[in-house]
Design brief:
This protein is of the alpha+beta class. It has three helices and 14 strands. Strands 1, 4, 5, 7, 8, 12 and 14 form a seven-stranded antiparallel beta sheet that branches.
């Protein structure tokens, strides 16, 4: 006897969304070996490189996925078992990539970094730091320090607007007596139209208002 299971429209679209998400995700090793890229909205993430020391995962065990934050800013999520099990020592993973705005009328003005750093079974520090040299001196860091404090998300504004940025994200576990963990790092980028575009839009709105006033007077 063959049973036919009915799929509701809602379930169909949920399944479709899951398939699309999986299709867009990529192993970091594949991106590096094939000089691959990931497009998220109007942003292109490319030129991936990676290095690891201690007990940080190899690129074959790291996943890169598209990510859009609640404010609608586009970015990527780096997923892996970023663990330092060297008690009394440290481990480090460094990911480099380039982000480019594909829309020539928009520029990147800021960035947000978030992660889930934690320290278990003792004292130490788990952290992720993003830098944007040589284009901008901004540095973003999230961390968990035991004993101490925790910061899971932070954001900053660039000194100038950019259409292309070179990003370096460093994930570090430094142990005193504990084990440091992190399973994801998310980075998104805030953008606005270029100043020239904003000026043209302002002039255009001004002209419309002026013509409207003249029409009412006539």
């Amino acid at each position: 006897m063959i049973r036919i299971h009915r799929i509701t429209p809602a379930a169909f679209f949920v399944a479709l969304a899951l398939c699309v998400t999986s299709a867009n995700a990529a192993l970091l090793s594949t991106l590096i070996d094939t000089d691959g890229s990931i497009q998220v909205g109007d942003k292109l993430f490319s030129d991936f490189t990676y290095s690891n020391t201690g007990s940080m995962p190899a690129p074959t065990l790291v996943n890169v996925s598209p990510y859009t934050d609640p404010q609608g800013n586009f970015g990527i999520e780096i997923q892996g078992s970023f663990v330092n099990i060297n008690v009394g020592g440290s481990s480090n993973a460094v990911l480099n990539y380039t982000v480019t705005v594909l829309d020539p009328n928009k520029t990147i003005v800021g960035s947000t970094l978030s992660a889930n750093p934690a320290v278990i079974n003792g004292a130490g520090t788990s952290s992720a730091t993003a830098s944007f040299l040589p284009e901008d001196p901004l540095t973003l860091t999230v961390f968990s320090t035991v004993p101490g404090s925790t910061l899971l998300a932070t954001s900053g504004v660039f000194t100038t607007d950019h259409q292309t940025l070179h990003v370096q994200t460093s994930i570090t576990g430094s142990s005193v007596t504990g084990v440091e963990t992190m399973s994801f790092v998310r980075q998104t980028f805030v953008q606005v139209p270029e100043p020239a575009t904003v000026t043209l839009m302002t002039l255009g709105l001004g002209a419309i208002c002026f013509l409207g006033r003249r029409h009412r007077r006539g």
